[in-house]
Amino acid sequence: MSKKITLACAVCSSRNYATTKNVSTNPARMEVKKYCKTCGEHTLHRETK
């Protein structure tokens, strides 16, 4: 079962990305290094509630 999630920058807390993830295979919160246009660099983005 897929669930829509949003990813927020760990540095500036701006919500930049929206994606889906399979909850049954990945129950933990997702953490990905992505480009943040506010910070202007690649930073860690975490799944928000």
UniProtKB/TrEMBL annotation:
Alphabetized PROSITE patterns for the sequence: RIBOSOMAL_L33 (PS00582)
TM annotation in the entry: none
Q: Does the record carry Ribonucleoprotein as a key word?
A: yes
Which terms does the record give in the GO molecular function aspect? structural constituent of ribosome
Keyword list (alphabetical) reads: Ribonucleoprotein, Ribosomal protein
* GO CC annotation, single: ribosome
Asked whether the keyword Aminoacyl-tRNA synthetase is assigned, the reply is no
An example Gene Ontology biological process: translation
Supply the Pfam families for this chain: Ribosomal_L33
Q: Which family does it belong to?
A: Belongs to the bacterial ribosomal protein bL33 family.
Q: What is this protein called?
A: Large ribosomal subunit protein bL33
Tell me what organism the protein belongs to. Answer: Virgibacillus indicus
